[in-house]
Specification:
63% of the residues lie in helices and 0% in strands. By secondary structure, the chain is mainly alpha-helical. It starts with a helix and ends in an 18-residue tail after the last helix.
Length: 57
């Protein structure tokens, strides 16, 4: 019969794999977002202006 202590390493490894995978995915998304945002001309960057600066909503 197995106990919770016997299964703990597998559970921890599973959680670590999931957390690591999500962390890697976030890192890829952030890098890709930064690379894409650098390609947008300054006058087209609506997310970096305030409504007072002429942003259209």
């Amino acid at each position: 019969m197995s106990t919770a202590a016997d299964n703990a390493p597998y559970i921890i490894a599973g959680w670590a794999a999931v957390a690591g995978g999500i962390g890697a995915y976030v890192a890829v998304l952030v890098r890709r977002g930064r690379a894409l945002s650098a390609q947008v001309p300054a006058d087209r960057r609506r997310w970096s202006t305030t409504p007072a600066e002429g942003s259209v909503r």
